[in-house]
Design a protein that fits this description.
Layout: E1 6-13, H1 29-47, E2 53-56, H2 58-65, H3 69-94, H4 98-120, H5 125-129, E3 133-137, H6 150-167, E4 176-177, H7 188-193, E5 198-201, H8 204-207, E6 218-219, E7 225-228, H9 231-238, H10 272-293, E8 299-305, H11 316-330, E9 333-334, H12 337-343, E10 347-348, H13 366-369, H14 374-390, H15 396-406, H16 409-415, H17 422-438, H18 458-461
Parallel strand pairs: 1-2, 1-8, 1-9, 2-3, 3-4, 5-7, 6-10
Antiparallel strand pairs: 6-7
Length: about 475
């Protein structure tokens, strides 16, 4: 009988460059909410020693370091959130719903707690996360296989890696989050050039859900170790019918006038104690399933967006902390992915397998290349080729606008109609600025004031 295997959790932490670009309902308030409900609670869990692999995208780090950004976040937590809860509670009482008003007043305390935590680290949230920043990603979360050239991939990957090395004293071991797990074998050589030694891939479309091959790291022909993520277990946490749909959890769809959520999924007034009990029960169930999954060996890699835990699933941080504890009690070996990859034998990349994969629609690149969003991808590719043609004459402002155009977020938000006109407006503005800069038309102060502050054009100019 094989030795029991290991479980590795990777939290991919990312936010598009929204700092300075709008407020409610779309814009930098996304970032402030993520800080309050996800990043600060997850920092507590990591500080307590949870063996979780944290990936921070360079573009998120750029925003957390932007001058004045966390001061505005503090104002949001200190002023706007208490007032919006107060107004909603007042309206509920006028409508005869004291029970909803009481829950809104209780919920406002989460933002006061977040403000106290932010002030305790003197606004240096990135410094708080730095000891745990194990993995990095491309500069602005570009879909690497959809870029127009090898130089474009180098531009994203090498700048992303270098920004991580510049920021964090912790030794980087080569872990790299491929944005959206969007992978094709041809990018492996370029990842290796950037110093990447490990990444996650989505192989469900090739291996099938629950296939044991998803528990074995793959060694690409060009070097990096590629850890398949285990969709069978991930969807218990992330799927529409997974744990977050539990009756006691906060309903993320039904909202008040000021965008608060005082109801549970079953329609009852939200009860935090009931929800906490369910989170602990679900965490224990998940640990049991993980134990069964690796009972015969292998490496179960569970990858999630950090923002799932708190921003999208209110009880997510409670669930995650309870899961870590349940793994310890059940003898499940929960380990950092870098450590596990050193100890688990890898197998060669399957011969003849060259198709693109991702954790997007149909495990393909469709989410970022379907007809609905093809104009975004095609125009970004055209801009990349024009930047290459400009050669050494390309300005840093134009290069930063190109980075903004290449972000995966605009097509993703547009594909699923998640943010109204915001993604197309953002993409259009960056494209207009890029074109103006190439044409030497004078522009005002760059709105991308802290995007890739140490940007190097050298990777883009390599043949």
């Amino acid at each position: 009988m094989a030795a029991p295997g290991r479980v590795a959790i990777v939290l991919h932490t990312h936010m598009p460059y929204v700092e300075g670009f709008g407020t409610w309902p779309f814009g930098e308030e996304w970032l402030w909410e993520a800080i309050a409900t996800s990043y600060l609670p997850i920092a507590d869990l990591l500080d307590a020693g949870a063996p979780i692999t944290l990936s921070l995208t360079p573009v998120l780090c750029d925003q957390l370091e932007a001058p004045g950004a966390l001061d505005r976040c503090a104002s949001f937590l200190r002023e706007l959130r208490p007032e919006s809860h107060r107004l909603d509670a007042e309206g509920c009482r006028e409508g005869g719903r004291d029970d909803l008003a009481e829950e809104l007043e209780r919920a406002a305390g989460q933002y006061a707690t977040a403000l106290a935590a932010l002030e305790a680290c003197e606004g240096d949230l990135l410094g708080r996360l730095a000891p745990h920043a194990a993995w990095t990603s491309s500069a602005t979360h570009a879909i690497l296989p959809l870029l127009a050239s090898n130089s474009g991939v180098r531009f994203q990957t090498q700048n992303g890696v270098q920004s991580h090395r510049d920021r964090f004293e912790r030794q980087w071991r080569g872990g790299f989050w491929i944005p959206e797990c969007a992978h094709e074998p041809w990018i492996d050589r370029l990842l290796e050039e950037a110093g990447v030694h490990a990444a996650c891939v989505e192989m469900t479309g090739h291996f099938g859900v629950g296939d044991e091959r998803n528990l074995r790291p793959l060694r690409s022909a060009d070097g990096p170790l590629l850890a398949p993520i285990d969709r069978a277990l991930i969807d218990l946490v992330w799927g529409s019918d997974g744990y977050p749909a539990g009756a006691a959890y906060r309903d993320s769809h039904q909202r008040t006038t000021f965008e608060h959520r005082p109801w549970a999924n079953d329609g009852e007034v939200y009860d935090c104690e009931r929800a906490e009990r369910q989170a602990k029960d679900d965490a224990d169930d998940f640990a049991e399933r993980c134990a069964a999954r690796v009972a015969d060996g292998g490496l179960c890699t569970l990858a999630f967006d950090t923002e799932l835990f708190g921003l999208w699933w209110h009880e997510g941080p409670t669930f995650l902390a309870a899961f870590v504890e349940a793994c310890s009690q059940r003898g499940v070996e929960l380990t950092a992915l870098d450590d596990a990859l050193q100890e688990v034998e890898a197998v060669p990349w399957p011969s003849g397998l060259s198709a693109a994969t991702s954790w997007g629609k149909s495990n393909s690149l469709r989410t970022w290349a379907a007809p609905k969003v093809a104009a975004i991808t095609n125009r970004a590719r055209e801009a990349e080729l024009r930047a290459l043609a400009a050669g050494p004459g390309l300005s840093l402002r134009a290069a930063r606008e190109l980075l903004a155009l290449q972000a995966s977020d605009w097509a993703f938000l547009e594909f699923d109609d998640l943010a109204g006109p915001y993604p197309m407006e953002r993409f259009g503005d960056h494209l207009e600025n890029f074109n103006a800069e190439l044409a030497s038309v004078p522009l005002g102060e760059a709105a991308l004031r802290n995007l890739a502050p140490t940007l190097s054009l050298a990777p883009l100019l390599e043949p």
